[in-house]
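Fig. S4 source data, part A: sequence.
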Amino acid sequence: MKIFLNVIPIIALALIAALPLSAAAAGGKVAKSEVVMKMGDKVHLFHSSNVPAQKEIAVGDVLPVYRVIYKGTSVSEAKSGKTFKEKEVGQVKVLSFFGEHYFEAVIIKGNVQKGDIAKKGGTALLVQSPREADPISENHK
């Protein structure tokens, strides 16, 4: 009887730990906190170096937006270095410069999420929602 009472909590903990994994493995939906922004929504594009980005990107430019999708980490994928891929998910049009390290843009195609990457040439810009990109707070560091 003691063995039985000791095994029950172990089985219960194993089930609790395995259930979320089995839902994700079966292709079930896992709750995400990403906010999907749609056509017409404004976004801010972060760049870390203001001079090269502002020379390469102009107001009115249309930039493709990519989402990084991570693949499984099998041995063959790890050896080839292909553990992620970029998928084009939309386009944004640059409206203006916004502070020292941001551009303001509007989504003109697709569904864009916070954390996606807009690219032009050798410049990559991180997509952020307008509430997160506050140039005023940059001046108070």
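Fig. S4 source data, part B ends here. The longest helix spans residues 2-25.
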